[in-house]
Structure formats: structure tokens, C-alpha cells
Design a protein that fits this description.
Length: 158
């Protein structure tokens, strides 16, 4: 009887704990509306660490993302991205995205015809310095035990 009570108490405690997931927060519609449209990544930088090599989004070297084109649709949180830089892998994909109220940009890169709920891997970046014509997405990566920023600078395409 004691074992049943202990198992029940442990189960109740385990299932009553809340997780703080980036996907469980509310959306920031203001930031999302500002990001809506066509963009190009004008630069990728690593403030304070210019001599590192980064494989961005498990797709290609981060410098291959310079010149990449992105389309963000805010009413359904979908879009597309394409790598277009010479001497880099050719890649194009649909994406899903949203910005939560913590200013976190949540991105999933999809295979053609794949539903976002089937994709388990995603990326969480910080939105920074947003204006009508530009914004930044900042990724934090571990380089030798130290968190280093990777800054993707977006410029609006007319």
C-alpha cells in the first residue's frame, strides 16, 4: 500500500510541474508584423570572435548565408529561405517561424511537403535592433566553453 501511495505521489509531482518552453509562450504580433516581407542577409558577424567557422542551421558555413533570401509571412507564420551565394551549397526550403513575447525568434526549416509538427529540430534566436528596413537575429553558440554571438543582419528587399 505504501508503494502505491509513493508511486501516485511521485507521478502527481512529476506531471504537475510546468515546463518553460519557448513554444509555450504567447506571440509578439508587433515584432512579427514588422518582420513580414522579403529580406536578404547582408552580413554575418561574430562580435569579438572574427576567426571562427560556424555551420549555420546545420546547412552550410555561416558566410554562405550572406546574400541569402528570406520571405516571412506573418499571418500564417510560414515563409521560404534560399542560399544563393556563389561557391556555396545551393539550398532552398519552406520554413515556419514565430516570435514569442520574450523576443525569441523560433525557426523550423522544413523539407518540401513536410508539416512543421513533424519536424523535431528547430532554432531559437534573439531578435534585435529592429527597424522598418532592417533587423538582426542573434544565435548563441558554444566556442571553447564560451558563449559567442553569431549576428545575422537582415535588410528589407523592396
Amino acid at each position: 500500500m505504501k508503494k502505491i501511495f509513493l508511486v501516485a505521489a511521485f507521478s502527481l509531482a512529476l506531471f504537475s510541474c510546468k515546463t518553460s518552453s519557448v513554444t509555450a509562450t504567447k506571440l509578439d504580433r508587433g515584432i512579427q508584423t514588422g518582420i513580414k516581407g522579403n529580406w536578404v542577409i547582408s552580413s554575418v558577424s561574430y562580435p569579438g570572435s572574427e576567426y571562427i567557422k560556424v555551420n549555420s542551421f546545420q546547412l552550410a558555413d555561416s558566410k554562405c548565408f550572406e546574400g541569402s533570401t528570406w520571405k516571412f509571412v506573418s499571418n500564417n507564420n510560414k515563409g521560404t529561405m534560399a542560399l544563393t551565394k556563389y561557391d556555396c551549397p545551393v539550398f532552398s526550403s519552406p520554413i515556419t517561424w514565430f516570435v514569442n513575447t520574450n523576443g525569441e525568434f523560433v525557426l523550423k526549416i522544413l523539407d518540401a511537403g513536410e508539416k512543421a509538427k513533424k519536424v523535431r529540430d528547430g532554432y531559437v534566436l534573439q531578435v534585435a535592433n529592429q527597424t522598418e528596413s532592417s533587423f538582426q537575429l542573434i544565435d548563441r553558440i558554444d566556442v571553447g566553453g564560451k558563449l559567442t554571438a553569431v549576428v545575422y543582419q537582415f535588410q528589407r528587399v523592396n
